Amino acid sequence: MSYAFSRNNIHLLRAYAVLWLVFCAAFMMPAILAVAAPPAPTVEVNIAKFAFSPQEITVAPGTKVIWTNRDDTPHTVTSNDKSFASKGLDTDDKFEHTFTSEGDFSYICTLHPFMTGVVHVRKQ
Amino acid sequence: MSKHDSASPGHNPARRQALSCLAAWTGAAVVWTVTGGVPRALGATGTDIPTAAAKNALTFVQISDTHIGFHKEANPDVIGSLRRAIADINALPQTPAFVVHTGDVSHLSKPEEFAEAREVLQEIHVDRVHTVPGEHDAIDDGVNGYLKFFDHDGNGKSWYSFDQGGVHFIGLNNVLNFKMGRTAALGDEQIAWMKSNLAGVPHSTPVVVLAHIPLWTIWEPWGWGTADSAQAMALLRPFGSVTVLNGHIHQVLQKVEGHISLHTAMSLAYPLPTPGQDGIGEPGPVTVPADQLGKLLGTRQLRIVRGRHELALIDTPLDR
After folding, report:
1. Over 90: is that where the pLDDT of B16 sits?
2. Does the beta-carbon distance from A49 to B284 stay under 8 Å?
């Protein structure tokens, strides 16, 4: 019985194997990295009955805050320092903002300025 | 001298009571007479409005809070309500000189909402509809979206004045300058403009002021007031006849201070609750049975009556 693989074929096979491994690694790497790094933390704030709930939250830098309007009437999420501002949010519309720097970010609804909220960003 | 106070608290939250309270409150806030089953709101000086037009008497109509684009349970067809109002206006025995719209023309400041509103308003048989912006017309981009469709003088300003029938009209924008946790404000630039605008007007000329948010504080927790209205009122005080027409609260309330009378108007979209009721904590649209809605929406006719410092008013609901 003669082997199908000659010495040259073995080299070729090895080259293909290495290429295949590199190819797979290229696809797997993002998955590996994703598993290795935890997803960005998310905090939800409801807009309901003309109030932000919770009205006051404290988050770490890098946290994404998602506001959802549950009311029949539109609202906005507009920071007083102009660092974030949603478009008009109808019922079930969402607005998200990722807070990168430490600080205290107070905001209002521009349609109903008696609606106020604050996000405290602190390293944890 | 204030004739009427804001809502008294302590009402039963049960819906039927709330509805009858709402209806009763609307009646109590204005001077009413009932003629042939049609409630009429009248200025303090008149007992009736002559059906024959007095020569040179200026009449016009106020509508408010059409919220074009709103399509929730409280009113699934705001365009229909507006068209019913237009039919009422077009059927008036004396054609009004023009119509004023005291704001919240649109619901979400969307261009298609402004466009549809402007198109439907053209069905009114008047030469002109004068509008002022509401806060629902100032979402996203200030009043820039609104001005693309409703720039009164074509100069990019949301406040203006005009004279007609011997009366001086001022349109104001009090839906910008929101401060944290407070009410809206007119702002220094607009008040300065108002001062120089009024400087050229004789004190005997009747003045009518249009502004969306009430120029007196009705209920601050809900933003029903204007933070710097005192400055505007001081500018108006020297005049012999001042009528302030507001919207925003979707119900009729009236206040008289000397020669200044202020009136809010019904909406053409949906009713809002009266403040101070137990169990009703926020100014959201009130859903009523379908056959009740037309009684809580409506229009207002105004007539300048020579020799009287108060305008004659008739508030007419869509359904009598």
Report:
1. no
2. yes
Q: What is the largest CA-CA distance in chain A?
A: 89
Q: What contacts A106, CB < 8 A, 6 or more positions away?
A: A79, A80, A81, A116, A117, A118, B180
B72, B178, B248, B272, best to mutate vs chain A, most A CBs in 10 Å? B178
Tell me whether residues A73 and B281 touch, CB distance under 8 A: no
Distance CA B60, CA B126 (A): 9
pLDDT score for A31 = 57
Tell me which residue has tokens 């009571």.
Answer: B17
pLDDT in tens, B230-253: 999 999 999 999 999 999 999 999
- Candidates 3.60.21.10, 3.40.50.12780, 3.20.20.140, 3.40.50.620; correct CATH number of B15-47+57-317? 3.60.21.10
Half-sphere exposure (Cβ direction) of A19: Cα atoms closer than 13 Å? 6
User: How many distinct helices (H) and strands (E) make up chain B?
Assistant: 7, 13
List the structure tokens of B304.
């300048």
Q: How far apart are CA A2 and CA B148, in angstroms?
A: 85
Residue B3 has pLDDT above 50, yes or no: no
The more confidently predicted of residues A3 and B210 is B210
Within 8 A of B179 by CB-CB distance, chain A residues are: 113
What is residue B197's predicted lDDT score, i.e. its pLDDT?
A: 98
Token digits of residue B66: 């059409």
* pLDDT tens-digit map of B75-115: 999 999 999 999 999 999 989 999 999 999 999 999 999 99
Which H or E run includes B316? strand B312-317
Identify the bridge partners of residue A67 per DSSP, sorted by sequence position.
A45, A95
pTM for the complete prediction? 0.80
Hey, what CATH topology would domain A42-121 get?
Answer: Immunoglobulin-like (2.60.40)
Between A6 and A114, name the one with better pLDDT. A114
Identify from A47, A72, A93, A95 which residue to disrupt to test chain B contact, counting B C-beta atoms within 10 A and taking the largest count. A72
Cβ within 8 Å, pair A88-B140: yes
